């Protein structure tokens, strides 16, 4: 096969490219230029896609003896990921830009361009596994290394995209990947992993949003509507948040308060007690299926954060919408997050959370 290896400049994508080459594929390394004003150097382990990262990827490609190119996708990334992220926060939602990047950039823009140029597939350094079934279908599964598993952020891929995707690291734990990189002579074997949001390298999401959206002073209110504080922009808050609220009036019972709702229309942030965060029902839209969509009511594992716990649940789909009923309450489920559904280690699909609520335990899903 002719394969594009997406090379970020990190150790994972370097080893992924090497393994594809070892497997006998014709491999070309591609670094995605996603920033319209890329920094020269990384800021510790935050961020990515710097000029330094592009240089690191090129040097690994030289060691492997494979062609290497930089593809400029900054405009597409800005439109489909950065602007989407900004709009979602402005609407009082909490998006995950990594899912959107995988959906719109790495397995849409990159894959489409690769196929147009005559390539068969794209390989990345994600920690996840592709399993082929007896009838030839390809399924997305969790990685062996549960601490590094990235199947959650890949839950937006559909069956066609999975048919042209390779994740060579899914069967290996991260310490072994670093050892392998050193054995191959990759100078980046000890390079720190990137984390947080790549286009906010200093980690200050609130400051970044304020610079883009401007200050918008408003009230922080309790569930009775009483003003208990003020803010400079409701967009800087998310459901479940406790720190950084700056409340001017403590709760009468002295208990900590959390953000329980963000109201962009009135520019209010609502705070309440921890108990108000507990929900057992989730409604999602923008459903994406990694294979055939579920038929009727099915038992699933539901995960609402990239490295969060999987929760036992029941789910059913209706066109592009998904309903999830959790066996037990979970906390801090915010609109805009994604819920990813699992059947064992297999990823069924995902949906963007539109709403969450607490329903009586007697509430039953519709009959098959």
Automatic annotation (TrEMBL):
Binding-site list for ATP: 6-13, 32, 125
tRNA-specific 2-thiouridylase MnmA-like C-terminal domain location: 282-353
Catalyzed chemical reaction(s): S-sulfanyl-L-cysteinyl-[protein] + uridine(34) in tRNA + AH2 + ATP = 2-thiouridine(34) in tRNA + L-cysteinyl-[protein] + A + AMP + diphosphate + H(+)
Signal peptide: none
EC numbers, comma separated: 2.8.1.13
Chain's role: Catalyzes the 2-thiolation of uridine at the wobble position (U34) of tRNA, leading to the formation of s(2)U34.
Site (Interaction with tRNA): 126, 337
Localisation: Cytoplasm
SUPFAM superfamilies: Adenine nucleotide alpha hydrolases-like
Cross-referenced Pfam families: tRNA_Me_trans, tRNA_Me_trans_C, tRNA_Me_trans_M
One term of GO molecular function: tRNA-uridine 2-sulfurtransferase activity
GO biological processes: methylation; tRNA wobble position uridine thiolation
Stored NCBIfam families: PRK00143.1, trmU
The protein's name in its UniProt record: tRNA-specific 2-thiouridylase MnmA
Organism field: Humibacillus xanthopallidus
Residues of the tRNA-specific 2-thiouridylase MnmA-like central domain: 208-272
EC supergroup of this enzyme: transferase
Lineage: Bacteria, Bacillati, Actinomycetota, Actinomycetes, Micrococcales
Region Interaction with tRNA, annotated ranges: 148-150
